[in-house]
Every structure is written in structure tokens, then in C-alpha cells.
UniProtKB/TrEMBL annotation:
This is Tetratricopeptide repeat protein. SUPFAM superfamilies: TPR-like. Gene3D superfamilies: q2cbj1_9rhob like domain (2.60.120.620), Tetratricopeptide repeat domain (1.25.40.10). TPR repeats lie at residues 40-73. PROSITE patterns: TPR. SMART domains: TPR (SM00028).
């Protein structure tokens, strides 16, 4: 095709995109960009079309080049920031937007985008401020209302439900807004109202994983024994969607229903024979359920060569004491992804059971595991404990977590609007910084010490309340962080018949691995003290028979990788 103008190239690309011919649309854009490389408007339009077609990398490239050609264009800067945020590059997006703040603060679109970027960074206070600014300029701007409602829910604001109602008044067809309203009703204690909306969402969009998962959470909290049966109903209604079966497996396995998860995976494998992933899931879950022979047969039929397969087959080989094979799988996985917390956690257990000298380097160096006093504990704890109890009184047993009984607070605890949670977050950050500085020196090969000299962030904070007589944490890891934690706020008293009741065990393998290894360390909790340790260490809680145990936990991440 000979391109006579940028407009012609744009028309050709747009027409192709409307018919669903993405390849022809990309070709037309490519030819137009080659013919008219200095046309900032065309590059901006091309970026928008790439974005609509799901090519976020190319969209960001074109918006960036368009902005370089026309740096005074606020609309292009906003588009560039949105594309960066879509790639989870929120810091870069903020840097773009900050250059236009004087002009942009008079724009509802700019202000709403700043709110979106701040929320993506985890700065909910700034997000609320910018969304409020956008709505002051344009009170019924749908995306600003949506974002503000989500921030209200995430911060635990008492008017979250009102925000969702306001957002729905201008956008009744947004399923995520209805989900947010249901979540707000659940937080407010209106479980009946929340469930009615969740059931309606699942009926209208049976393939939507967020709706399916939320209904499962509500059903679990209400004591439904078969709390995932609606996944089966959804699968019957949308028989062509394999994701329903995959999600269904994960929900069941997350609460140790491994045999049931394997049965669902088996059904998925029959219905979708070309998707090897279901045989991998079946092998994974049936192995965890105890049938190593069947799992072995399934693994032997797989041609799938993915990190997930290597990780789960390594677990299987460890169960069968086939340590050399497990080591090869983990070595391959860590060669391609040296930051895999789950792989390092298994490697640590493997090195211990084979008595490899590297085991000491990985997890037994001095100061890697510490119990340290919380900074300013005297100022913080008096008010935080009753505030947490109020949250727990209406908090459920969560899906897919290590809890077996008890309750876990919703959302990110340190994002909440109440001052006591901000004070606790500040004290935790200061304590974590002291821990970072006390660690052994930087070691580029070590999964934690490679981050020793970077800036650390506290993320994913929550509180857990366990009651004696059956509530406990199974041995688990937190694969999203580099350091894991437990801040002790209330503890049960030991009795004569209970040895180390409620103590933290660090380094004991999960039961499904069938390894006879004792914990590397057991920590006696102390109120106002915080256990900090590498996220590559499995950890769990000893059972206790009476009273309550309440903690705050969080993950630590680094601002960049190396």
C-alpha cells in the first residue's frame, strides 16, 4: 500500500481494526509511521489504536514519541501516563504527569489520571485527593467516581457504599462497580444484600472470575459446605471457557481440598484435551492429596515445559525422595527466574534434607531471622488493639490463605484512613529499616541479601485473629515479598499440657512434602515484638487451646531488582 497521507493510514488502520483484522491494522499503522515519522498527532492516534488492540508496549512507545515531538501537549502526556500505568510503570507515569501539574490541575481528565496513578503506586491518600479534585471540576466523571469509590473501600472509609451508589448512578452497567457495592455491603455487615448482588453478577456474567471468587468467599463465610458449587453451574452455562475450571481448582486447593481440586482438574482435562495445563493441575493436586503414583503417571505424560510445571514437579519429586531430579528442576527454574521465592523455598528444604553446605548460607546466617521490638510500641499499641478487634468482628476466613480458622482483615491495613493505622504503618517501616541495616552484607547471589542495600517498601499488610481450640496457620510462604513478618499484639497463655502453644515455627516443611525436618527456629512471641525473616522460609503457628492470638503481618518488597 502506498500511503499518501497520515489520515489515509489512520483510516485504513481504523477500518481494519473495526472488522477485527488486527494484523492489517498494525500493518497500516506501521506504514503510516514510517512515512510520517514527525507527525505527533498520528503517533498519538496510533498509540490509542494499539492500546485498544491490547498492545500496551507499542502504545507506550508511540505516545512517548508523540510527546517528544510535541512536549507542550497535555492530552498526549496524559495518554502516555495512562499507557505507562497500564504496564505497571506507575513511577514513570507519575514523572510524566508531574511536569504538567500547573496546567493539569485545572483538568478533570488530568486529575483523574493522577488519582489512578497514585492508586497504582499504593498511595491511597494522594489518590483520594486527586480524585476529589477531578470531581470538584467535573462531578459526574465516571472514571473518577469509580476510582474514588474503590479508594474509599480500600481505605475503610465509612461512606464507601455511598461512593459506589453515586458511581452507579452514572454508570449502571459497570460490573466492577456492582462488585464494589457488594463488597461495601459485606464490610457494613449486610451479608444478605452483598450475596444478592454477587449471585446476580454470577448469573449475568458466569465467566467473570472476580464475581465467582467473591461469591465463594461469601458462601465460605456463611458456612456453606459446598461453597464452590456455583463454579460448576457457571461452567455448564459457559462450557467453552476453561478458565472457570482452572479458577475452581485453585479455590478448592487453597483450603486443602486437594482431592476435590484434582477431580475438577480431571474434568477440565476431559473437556479441554488440548490444554495440558489441566493435566498439570491434576498432577499437582492429586500429589498433594497423597496419591504420588497417579501424580507420577500424569507428570510422565506432560510435554509442557513451563516454570509452573518445574515448580510443581519439584514438589512431587521431593515427596518421592527423588532429590536429584528435584534439584535439576529447581536449578532450571532459578536459572530463568532467579527471584522465584517459591523455588528458593523448596531449594532450601532440599539442601537441608540432603545436608548440602549451601543450606547454612541460604537461611542460617546470623541476623536473617530476628525478633525485634516495634518502634514506639508504647504509643501505638494501646489504640491499635481495640481498633483491630472491631475490624475482626466483621472479617471472614479468607480464601486461598494459610489460615485454618480465625479471621483476617480485608484489604491493605496500612491504607486505611484511621490515624491509628497510619501510625502503626510508620512504626513498622522504621522497625523494618532497622532490620535491613542489621543484616549481613550485600550478596548478589542470595535471594534476600541481593536487596540488602536497596530501598524497601512495606506492602500487603493485614491482621489475623486466631482463637484457641482449632485455629492455626499451616506452614506456608509469602511469594510476593522478600521479607515476611508477624507483629504480636495479643497472645494466649501456655498451660501445663501445651508446649510452646502459639509459638512461631520457622523452617518446618508443609505437611504435603512429607519431609521429616524440624523447624530451624521456634520463636516465643512477645507482645509488641515483631518477627522478621526471609520470605523464602516456610513458617507456621503451633496450635493452642484457649484464648486469642492476634497479629499484624505484611510483606516487604524492594523498589527495584538487581
Amino acid at each position: 500500500m502506498t500511503v499518501s497521507s497520515a489520515f489515509q493510514a489512520w483510516q485504513t488502520a481504523q477500518a481494519a481494526a473495526k472488522t477485527g483484522d488486527a494484523d492489517a491494522a498494525r500493518q497500516a499503522l506501521k506504514e503510516g509511521l514510517a512515512a510520517f515519522p514527525e507527525d505527533s498527532s498520528f503517533r498519538n492516534s496510533a498509540g490509542s489504536l494499539f492500546q485498544k488492540m491490547g498492545d500496551m508496549e507499542e502504545a507506550e512507545t508511540q505516545f512517548g514519541k508523540a510527546l517528544a515531538l510535541k512536549p507542550e501537549a497535555l492530552d498526549i502526556a496524559i495518554n502516555h501516563a495512562i499507557s505507562l500505568a497500564g504496564l505497571d510503570r506507575h513511577i514513570d507515569a507519575l514523572a510524566v504527569l508531574q511536569r504538567y501539574e500547573a496546567e493539569g490541575s485545572r483538568s478533570a481528565l488530568y486529575s483523574s489520571t493522577r488519582g489512578m496513578v497514585a492508586r497504582g503506586q499504593g498511595n491511597k491518600v494522594e489518590a483520594a485527593r486527586w480524585y476529589d479534585r477531578a470531581l470538584a471540576l467535573e462531578p459526574v466523571r465516571p472514571k473518577a467516581l469509580h476510582g474514588r469509590a474503590r479508594v474509599a473501600l480500600e481505605r475503610g472509609e465509612t461512606d464507601a457504599l455511598a461512593w459506589f451508589d453515586k458511581a452507579l448512578s452514572v454508570n449502571q452497567g459497570d460490573a466492577d462497580l456492582w462488585l464494589g457495592k457488594a463488597q461495601s455491603l459485606d464490610v457494613a455487615g449486610d451479608v444478605v444484600g452483598a450475596r444478592a448482588i454477587a449471585e446476580s453478577l454470577v448469573q449475568q456474567a458466569p465467566q467473570w472470575s472476580e464475581g465467582l471468587r467473591f461469591l465463594a468467599q461469601l458462601r465460605l463465610a456463611s458456612g456453606d459446605r459446598d461453597f464452590t458449587s456455583h463454579y460448576g453451574d457457571a461452567a455448564e452455562r459457559v462450557p467453552q471457557d476453561p478458565n472457570i475450571y482452572a479458577e475452581w481448582c485453585g479455590i478448592l486447593a487453597g483450603l486443602d481440598y486437594h482431592q476435590e481440586a484434582a477431580n475438577v482438574a480431571s474434568r477440565g482435562s476431559v473437556l479441554f484435551p488440548k490444554l495440558e495445563h489441566f493435566r498439570l493441575l491434576q498432577a499437582t493436586y492429586i500429589g498433594a492429596a497423597g496419591d504420588s503414583e497417579q501424580a507420577d503417571k500424569l507428570y510422565s505424560t506432560l510435554e509442557l515445559d513451563t516454570p509452573e510445571r518445574r515448580l510443581n514437579e519439584a514438589r512431587h519429586r521431593i515427596r518421592r525422595a527423588e532429590y536429584s531430579e528435584a534439584d535439576k528442576l529447581l536449578d532450571t527454574l532459578l536459572t530463568s527466574d532467579s527471584e522465584s521465592v517459591a523455588a528458593w523455598a523448596l531449594r532450601g528444604l532440599l539442601w537441608r534434607v540432603t545436608q548440602a553446605p549451601e543450606a547454612g548460607w541460604l537461611h542460617e546466617q546470623a541476623e536473617l531471622v530476628q525478633l525485634v521490638p516495634l518502634k514506639r510500641a508504647g504509643e501505638v499499641l494501646e489504640n491499635i488493639i481495640p481498633a483491630l478487634h472491631r475490624l475482626h468482628d466483621n472479617s471472614p476466613l479468607p480464601l486461598g490463605q494459610s489460615l485454618r480458622g480465625g479471621s483476617q482483615t480485608r484489604g491493605n491495613l496500612f491504607d486505611r484512613h484511621e490515624a491509628v493505622f497510619q501510625q502503626l504503618g510508620d512504626a513498622v517501616r522504621d522497625t523494618v529499616e532497622q532490620f535491613r541495616q542489621s543484616l549481613p552484607g550485600h550478596d548478589s547471589a542470595h535471594p534476600l541479601l541481593r536487596y540488602r542495600d536497596l530501598d524497601w517498601n512495606v506492602a500487603g499488610s493485614w491482621s489475623v485473629r486466631l482463637a484457641g481450640g482449632g485455629d492455626y496457620h499451616i506452614s506456608h510462604i509469602h511469594p510476593q515479598g522478600i521479607v515476611s513478618s508477624a507483629l504480636y499484639l495479643e497472645l494466649p497463655e501456655e498451660t501445663e499440657n501445651e508446649d510452646k502453644a502459639g509459638w512461631l515455627e520457622i523452617g518446618r516443611p508443609p505437611p504435603d512434602l512429607r519431609l521429616e525436618l524440624e523447624p530451624l527456629r521456634t520463636i516465643e512471641p512477645k507482645v509488641g515484638y515483631m518477627a522478621l525473616f526471609p520470605s523464602t522460609l516456610y513458617h507456621g503457628t503451633r496450635a493452642f487451646s484457649h484464648q486469642q492470638r492476634m497479629t499484624v503481618a505484611f510483606d516487604v518488597t524492594a523498589t527495584q531488582t538487581c
